[in-house]
Structure formats: structure tokens, C-alpha cells
Structure to design on (114 residues):
């Protein structure tokens, strides 16, 4: 089975990338893939229903952020890091760094509330 539909590099638009990265669940998916490399879609650690995760993965793929590779009945997802870095140098690094900072701050706040 071929890879699922995704835009060519030249069709990736900044607005679509920023929109896709604006959702906390999608950002969590991108952070996991960045940290661990290509992942099975079912192995992503997010607290949403499978159907909701599928929709988030579709948004990421259609925005040109991820590539989904089908192998049998499994779907593997990876970042299109080279494409994004060429089109928008440093953007993904800045977004992931800010997301990590926000994630740590939220964890600190939760710990303080206990």
C-alpha cells in the first residue's frame, strides 16, 4: 500500500502549518515524533479517541508536517523535517521549544496545586 496523500513540498503553506501546530493534541503528536522518530499511529500517547487521533493525524499530514506510511494494516507516522526546515528555517525548532516550555510550566503548576 502506498503512502497516504500528502502535499508536495512546494504546496506546503505557512498558514496551514501554523494552524495544524496550534492544537495542543497535534503539537503533542509532533513532539513525540520529534523525540522518538517514526512511530506507529496506535503507539502515540495522547488522551483522545482513536477516531479523534485519526482526524488530528489527517490535519498534520494535509498541512505537510507529517508523512504517513502504510505497511500492511499498520500506519507509521514521521515528521517531514527536511521539507519544513527548507521552507521555513527554524520554525519547527522554535515551536517545539516553546511547546516544551509550556508543557513544563503546566506540569509545575499541577504539582504546586497538589
Amino acid at each position: 500500500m502506498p503512502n497516504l496523500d500528502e502535499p508536495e513540498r512546494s504546496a506546503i503553506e505557512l498558514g496551514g502549518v501554523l494552524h495544524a501546530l496550534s492544537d495542543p493534541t497535534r503539537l503533542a503528536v509532533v513532539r513525540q515524533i520529534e523525540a522518538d522518530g517514526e512511530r506507529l499511529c496506535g503507539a502515540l500517547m495522547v488522551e483522545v479517541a482513536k477516531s479523534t487521533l485519526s482526524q488530528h493525524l489527517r490535519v498534520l499530514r494535509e498541512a505537510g508536517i507529517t508523512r504517513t506510511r502504510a505497511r500492511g494494516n499498520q500506519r507509521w507516522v514521521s515528521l517531514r523535517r527536511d521539507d519544513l526546515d527548507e521552507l521555513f528555517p527554524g520554525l519547527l525548532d522554535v515551536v517545539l521549544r516553546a511547546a516544551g516550555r509550556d508543557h513544563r510550566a503546566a506540569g509545575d503548576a499541577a504539582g504546586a496545586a497538589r
